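input
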Amino acid sequence: VGVKMNDILFVDIDGTLVDSNHRQNAEGKPDALDLDYWFANNTRENIFKDKLLPLYWHVRDRYYKGDYIVLCTARTITQDDLDYFEAFGITYNSIISRPKKCVLQDEIFKYNYLKRFCNLIWTRGRKKYLYDDKYKNLSYAMRLGIIPRYAKDWL
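output
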């Protein structure tokens, strides 16, 4: 009997795992992020106003069942974000996040980093899922054989 290979879940943060709309100024429009507004409002106080979304419980459950969780975000992660994850019990094994000064579109950034991750020897043969709230990101991930999971289905 072979050993079960646990799945790999790539999980977006904003609009998928947490509601950070108060920092986006997108007026409810998809893909309408105002980056200047985001950076101006990306303070510790505002980060800690983000609310957990229902998908959080699914991801947490999968983590404790042994799946490998990768937070996969187009935002640049700060110490304040890491403190938020710890304070609110957001469980993960690793993080893919935007390097400073990277200006690639979200779907290109995520595709490039997901491709690298999928090419690691230990990730081969495992089912991989991307949980994201943007269809374009999901579409690009499908090119890598990653199974798409639309975040809004958990609302």
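quick obs: The longest helix spans residues 106-118.
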